[in-house]
């Protein structure tokens, strides 16, 4: 592990000018620092395919200053926010990163560590369980438990990037990893969001929110139809759910408290959105339901691989700055540059995860807008992009 390598956990869906500014600040303050990115691949944490393919998004990040981008396995990317943060930070640690870097709305590194430290105490857990018994959602109960310790931190942790930063800090402290936390304060007055960029691209075929060059390439991808058609994806999710009976749904282990019965009933509705609208509740938020739908689509029937607590460590390279290729030599976990070779030579625990990555990629390809780009098994033909 070295403090000369900073790690970033990201989705870059898509990579926009806010991400570019964050990297520029990091480079300005640490000109000798190398940067590794760990990025969600074909599917993102919100429970749906990414708008563009992983190689394109990784390439934009490398053009903006990242030295190497590795794919976060789909087993990790389609998890709750807590687990997503844990697995992302774990992979950075396994890659040898001595520093983790992320954006927040307001909180400093020391404040995040303070909140994380309290969140690991018995006092916090006791308060959390008490608020849960009173009927609060997990998010509300967590906030109220933190409010006992610090009203200020509780209020600030209602902001999404502060909260995600606290999750990273919690993981690092709980595992006692010797990683330094660096934060970048986002410009909330001129905030650029990936959600807005996706919305503009899907509605207009263009956006001005991406870095120079990426804007033009994104426009070409939209014009060619090389982007995820979310209507196709939702139809696939609805059909998958409709074809599974309650016993099959239950066998996956993805459902609790009898949710599989409601899932089965509501899958008879005319659209996936209508189905989820009638299932969601204070306890089962839309994002969680969307992840379940994605996990069903990828994991199939029987015990779902997404319920496992063990995710193997490997580093699948998506894009690399050629001048920094030497950094790959010091990575202590398997670095994958050829999917076919990896499936022949790596242990079964890793190949099982890689096969799920391939399946996720095939599903996303099937959902592309233009038919000519829907061929499967692209993972076998794609090599890391070297710039």
Offer a few descriptive terms:
globular; single chain; eight-stranded mixed beta sheet; two-stranded antiparallel ribbon; 18 helices; 387 residues; alpha/beta; 10 strands
Quick recap of the structure?
This protein has 387 residues and is α/β, with parallel strands linked by helices. It is built from 18 helices and 10 strands. The mean pLDDT is 95.
Q: What would you call the shape?
A: globular
The ordered string of helix (H) and strand (E) elements is EHEEEHEHHEHHHHHEHHHHHHHEEHHE
Return residue spans where pLDDT drops below 50 for at least 5 consecutive residues: none
Helix content: 40-55%
Strand content: 5-15%
Put simply, the count of helices is 18
Task: Provide a descriptive summary of the structure in words.
About 50% of the residues lie in helices and about 15% in strands. The chain contains 18 helices and ten strands. The radius of gyration is 21 Å and the shape is globular. The relative contact order is 0.15.
List the helices and strands and how they pair.
Elements: E1 2-10, H1 17-29, E2 34-40, E3 43-44, E4 48-49, H2 54-63, E5 68-72, H3 74-77, H4 81-95, E6 97-104, H5 109-119, H6 122-133, H7 138-149, H8 151-156, H9 160-175, E7 180-185, H10 194-204, H11 214-224, H12 230-243, H13 246-251, H14 259-266, H15 272-279, H16 286-299, E8 315-320, E9 335-336, H17 339-345, H18 348-366, E10 385-386
Parallel strand pairs: 1-2, 1-6, 2-5, 6-7, 8-9, 8-10
Antiparallel strand pairs: 3-4, 5-8
């Amino acid at each position: 592990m070295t403090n000369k390598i900073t790690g970033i956990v990201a989705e870059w869906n898509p990579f926009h000018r806010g991400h570019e500014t964050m990297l520029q600040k990091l480079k300005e303050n640490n000109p000798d620092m190398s940067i590794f990115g760990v990025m969600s691949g074909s599917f993102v944490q919100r429970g749906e395919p990414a708008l563009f393919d992983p190689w394109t998004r990784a390439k934009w990040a490398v053009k903006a200053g990242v030295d190497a981008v590795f794919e976060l396995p789909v087993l990790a990317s389609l998890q709750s926010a807590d687990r997503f943060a844990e697995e992302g930070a774990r992979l950075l640690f396994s890659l040898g990163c001595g520093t983790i870097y992320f954006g927040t709305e307001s909180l400093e590194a020391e404040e995040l560590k303070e909140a994380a430290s309290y969140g690991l105490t018995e006092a916090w857990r006791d308060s959390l369980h008490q608020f849960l018994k009173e009927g609060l959602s997990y998010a509300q109960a967590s906030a109220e438990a933190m409010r006992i310790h610090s009203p200020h931190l509780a209020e600030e942790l209602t902001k999404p990037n502060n909260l995600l930063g606290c999750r990273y800090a919690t993981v690092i402290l709980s595992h006692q990893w010797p990683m330094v936390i660096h934060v970048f304060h986002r410009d909330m007055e001129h905030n650029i969001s990936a959600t807005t960029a996706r919305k503009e691209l899907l509605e207009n075929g263009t956006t001005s929110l991406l870095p120079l060059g990426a804007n033009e390439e994104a426009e070409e991808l939209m014009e060619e139809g090389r982007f995820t058609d979310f209507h196709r994806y939702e139809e696939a999710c609805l059909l998958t759910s409709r074809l599974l009976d309650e016993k099959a749904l239950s066998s996956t282990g993805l459902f609790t408290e009898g949710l599989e019965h409601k899932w089965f009933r509501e899958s008879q509705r005319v659209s996936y959105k209508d189905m989820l609208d009638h299932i969601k509740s204070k306890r089962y938020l839309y994002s969680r339901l969307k992840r379940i739908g994605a996990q069903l689509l990828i994991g199939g029937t029987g015990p779902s691989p997404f319920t496992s607590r063990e995710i193997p460590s490997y580093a699948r390279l998506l894009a690399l700055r050629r001048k920094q290729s030497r950094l790959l030599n010091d990575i202590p976990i398997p670095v994958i540059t050829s999917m076919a070779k990896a499936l022949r030579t790596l242990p079964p625990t890793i190949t099982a995860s890689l096969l799920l990555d391939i399946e996720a990629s095939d599903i996303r390809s099937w959902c592309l807008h233009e038919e000519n780009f829907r061929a499967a098994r692209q993972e076998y033909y794609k090599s890391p992009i070297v710039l």
